[in-house]
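Backbone geometry tokens:
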Amino acid sequence: MPSVTEFIGPGGTRSSTVEPLRPGDPRTVGPYRLEGRLGAGGMGQVFLGTSASGRRVAVKLIRPELAGTARFRERFAREAAAARQVGGFHTAQVVEADPAAEPPWLATAFVPGPTLQQLVDAGGPRDPAAVLRLGAGIAEGLAAIHRCGLVHRDLKPGNVIVAEDGPRIIDFGIAHEPGADAMTRTGSVIGTYAYMSPEQVRGEALSPAGDVFAFGSVLVFAATGRSPFDATTVPAIVHRVVSEPPRLDGLAAPLRELVGACLAKDPAQRPGMDEVLARLSVTGPGAVPPAAPAAPGAAFHALPTQPAAAPPAPPGPAGAPTAPAPAGALSRRTLLLGGVGAAAAAAAVPAYLFRDSWLGSGSEQDRTRPVARLEGHPQSLVALAFSPDGRTLAAGGSGGELWLWDTVTRRTITKFGGEPPRVFGLAFSPDGWTLVGSCQDGTLRRWDVRTRTALPALSGFETLSVPTPYSLAVSPDGAVLAAAGGGTLQLFDLTSGRRLKKIEAGEPSGVLFTPDGKGVATASRERVLLWDVDGGEQPRTFTDDSADSPFYRVLISPDGKTIGGAGPGVHLWDLATGRPTATLTSPHRRLEEAAYRPGHPMIAGGGFGLGPDDDVKDEARAATGGTVSLWDLKTGRVARTLTADLEESAGAPLLSALAFSPDGKTLAAAFSPSDSTIQLWQLA
């Protein structure tokens, strides 16, 4: 993974670290054209690459001696797949990998900026406030990595890029072999060992606690310009890491206490990343301002039938449990990373609060009920989307407002009133900074989530004179937006807003990118179509003769191996061969919404139930109104039915929006036309 293209050195001079390609270097790797050398690591050489559409990536070619072992390739394939699921603001996203290539390679998003090592070497230690902000960002990135079942193994100042908008962790979790970091240059060996945990030095099993130890050492370097175990030889460093206390002189008291806990010799004594984030929010600059009082008429709703208890730990950067925030606290991201302007904006928003109710008994019946509702929306909702880090939930509908909810504090972050008139679809960019909505007035609008401001609408977007719902999806690398509806599939450059392609696509309903970003799928009547993003306009077609009604949603498994359509139940095909793999029978009259649960072999879906005025011929289907079904893909059957806590109505509720948090632990759903709440379930 890359370190930097260029950075400002002493006196404002600009220094470049991209070296020209050498004789014998490849000129292309996979679909990428190589432009130069970024550096080398224990696994291999890193190159700057460019895709056919001009997107810049860092391409790592694996060393032949590693690639020659079956064990390494197996681990590389497994961990590369897991790394592609890592989201959030503070990691360099893995966009593609080919473990079977000769040699294997990995491509990640290219992040310009100096490494922390380069920054401190050039400009000296960082000030205390900057160290705290840096620590909060690195801790968030590590938490996202750990939630995907990965351990970084080599966190050090050279693997943290300090970009303009915060730190990025690079080179995480991909099949580091014992001794693979022992490069020939002495400085590289010392630079790695100085940040290893005692258990890693001893060759013992690694765990996230090892990254916590390295995190503490990195913060010491940022604050002082040296490792807490600095020495001139490897044996001396190893001795200090294993047997001596860290040198923490030069650290302010609050930070020194946190770092000291992270550098405990016993892994069991170190805090987890959730605790680190909580402690950083206390030691960070400035006090947490009090919450704004609840606006008159704002909902403060306690769910019935469940015992009052401490609120559940809300999702963290990718949805993992973190310490619950006080009712009056601003979000941790606002406090640590958003600055004064963002904090003021958040504090100015009326406090539309809701009260959690937690599952006290753990029974199956309790787990079918929502743990909370988000209230205050003027009318029913038809679009929900979690940000990639799981911290923000966007909601839009027919009420003329777009809402952003903080999933940690359970408060509204902001709402955009007056416009748009109605939002049919929502999608976040992979970095979480841009939110795109398809609107009833025939526009594709964008909002900057950080500044809470509207951006120019996408140009060249075409819709019918009659408002048509458009589904949205953003490619994994954040470069392309797909909009499906009104008889077309349209692709846009998300940065410039320029339309790239318009395809006549029948009657597309729902749209998703494949995990590698090379394909985009739509549902169209009794077919699911898979289009090549960079190719022609002839799609692959997936059909099932047993489907007796149109598909309303398309599904793609997180590993990219399975594609599906939802409508008359759920029909699944092997994406590579096109062969049917499963048909999931639905208790609903038809499925309007369906999605894979991240990290679990499960699909959630729901749609129409039957109301009191319907001719009820099937009592089972009559009971499906206001419910979400969870299919276990191992058995092919509904494993659980989630029942919403809806406002009283004489109508038949329709599941109009469905979204999983990135870690799959939280499910958000909205039902129309008579209910205007967001229902939240916590899933085991």
Q: What stands out?
A: The chain has a mean pLDDT of 76. Residues 622 and 641 are 14 Å apart (CA to CA).
